[in-house]
Design a protein that fits this description.
By secondary structure, this protein is mainly α. The chain is built from three helices and no strands.
Length: about 80
């Protein structure tokens, strides 16, 4: 979870939301071959997760799907 912390603005999210975003970030990076991701791609993943969380999404699986869709260019979210 700590890997998304640098991207999250201070004081914006509670601990539960931060935990969900961290789970989603880790899962998205793992699904996209974390070892091969550039810092830019990791930043885009984090931005998409944070944006979805700002709109109220708290389900780590949905947050992960949103991030992966943004990277893959697929705008359809299941």
């Amino acid at each position: 979870m700590a890997s998304i912390i640098p991207f999250i603005p201070r004081g914006v999210f509670d601990e539960s939301a931060t935990r969900a975003m961290g789970e989603a970030f880790d899962a998205a990076c793992a699904a996209l071959q974390d070892g091969n991701l550039s810092e830019l791609v990791r930043e885009i993943i984090a931005e998409r997760i944070i944006e979805a969380a700002r709109h109220g999404e708290r389900d780590p699986k949905r947050l992960c799907s949103i991030a992966i869709a943004a990277i893959s260019g697929d705008r359809k979210i299941e």
